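In this supplementary section we document a worked example of the pipeline. Step one takes a protein sequence of length 500 as its only input; no multiple sequence alignment statistics are reported here. Step two produces a three-dimensional model, which step three serialises into C-alpha cells for compact storage. The input and output of this example are shown verbatim.
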Amino acid sequence: MYDYLETAENPENLKRVAIDQVSRVEGHGKITLLLDQDNKVKQARLHIVEFRGFERFMQGRPYWEFPVIVQRLCGICPISHQLAAGKAIDQLVGVDPQNLPPAADKLRRLLHFGQVLQSHALHFFYLASPDLLFGFESDLNKRHIVAVLEAYPDIGLQGIKLRKYGQEVIRMICGKRIHGTGAIAGGMNKSLTQTERDYLLQDIDQIIAWAAGAVELVKKVHGSNLPYYDQFAAIRSNYLGLTRPDGALELYHGGLRARNDKGETIIDHVDYCRYNDYIHEEVRSWSYMKFPYLLALGKENGWYRVGPLARVNNCDYIDTPLAETARLEFKAYGGEAMVHSTLAYHWTRMIEALHCAERIKELLNDPEIMSHDLVAKGEKRCEGIGVIEAPRGTLFHHYRANEDGLVTKVNLIVSTTSNNMAMNESVRQVASEYLSGQELTEPLLNNLEVAVRAYDPCLSCATHAVGKMPLQLELIDVEGKLIDRLVRHSDGEFEHNLDG
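The serialised model returned by step three reads:
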C-alpha cells in the first residue's frame, strides 16, 4: 500500500510515503520515505514490522528437538536452519565436523545443495524475473510468475522444474519437501536408498543444463542494461562468508572470511566457533531486526553483506567446472577486485545454483552416499555453534545446554539480519538517485522494492529477537481522539508522550 501522510509530530512537517508491505519477499516489511515540499527525499528506511521470539521460546527445550523446531522459522529455507542446528547439536554430543561419518557428511551436503538450488530458483524465477524481464516500472499486473509463463513459457517452466528438482532432493532425504527430518545429533537419521539415488540421477544432466542456461540469461539481462544495472542500488561494502582453507567457495562447512570493498582481507578462515570475537550486533529503535557489524571496524564502518554476491566476491575459485567458468566471466566483467552492483546478486545466485547442480551429480555418483554408517558419538559438552551458508548468506546458530540436555541460551544471526544495513543503504541510494524530486507513482516506487528484493530477504527468519523491543501504545477514544501514548524505547525506558 502506498499512502501519503502528513506527520504532525515531524518538526519539518515532512510528508511520509509508505510502501506497506514490500511484495515478493518472504515475511513482512515496509519502506518509508520522508519528503519535503519539493518531493526531495530526506530519509529512507526499511522497517521490519513483525516480531517472532524464537531465541526466547526455544529456551528450556531439549537440544535433540532443535533441528525440527528451528525449521518453523521459515517455509522457504527450513533445511538451512535444520543443518545449522544439526551442526550445533553435534558439538553438544561431542562430535566435531571432521568426526562426522563420511556418509552423514555427504548426505547433509546433498541435502544442502538441494535446498540452495530450490531456493535460488524460487527467488530468481518466481520473485525477481518479472522485474528483470518486464522492467522495474512495468504494469503491476505483469509482475508475477504467471505473466512470465505467458510471455516466456520456456524460461518460466525451466524455473519451476529447477525448483521442483531441488525439492525432490530434499524429499528423498527428509521424507517431505518442507519441515521433514534428517539431521540428528552426530549424524543423519536415514541413508539414501539406491532407488532414491537412481530417481534423482535420471534428470540431473538436464538440471545442470537448465542451470547453465539461467546463468546465461541473467548475464544477458544484466549486460544489456549496463551501466544502469551497475549503478542501481549500488553500494560499496564489506563482505562476509565461509571459504575452504584453500579459498574455495564453501556452502556447508568452512572458516569465516571477510574482505573490504577493495578486496583487502579483514579476517581469513577464522573458526566460526569464535564468531563472537569478530561480530557484534546492535539494536535500533525503528526495526525489529538487529544490525550486525565487524568488531574490528566498529558500528559505523563494520557493516557487511552476505549471500551469493559476498560468497562469489570472497572466494578464490569454485570447485565445479561450469560454475568456475561462470565465476571467472563474472569477475572479469566487474573491472575491480570486488563487484558492488546490488543487482549482481541475481547473477551470482544463478552461478551458485549451477554449482549446486554440479555437486549434486557428484554426490549422487558417490557410492558412500548410500552407506548406513550415519551416527557418531562423543563426550557431552555444554555449548554448540553451527554455521552454514544458507541461500541468503551466512547463518549462525549458537546454543548452550545444561547437564540434562535442556538448552539455556540461544543466539541466532540470520543471513537477512547481516544484510540489514546494506538493504537500508541500497534503499537510500535508490530513493536519492531515482526518486528524489519526482512525483511518486506506484511503478516508480517499485524501484525501492527491486532494491530490497535483490537481497532475497527472509524477513520472518530475521525478526526472531531484538533484546529490549521498542513499543508504542496509543489510547484513542470513540471519536478517534488520542487520549494517551506510552512509548517504550529500545533502551527499555518508558515515557508518556502525547506530542509524539
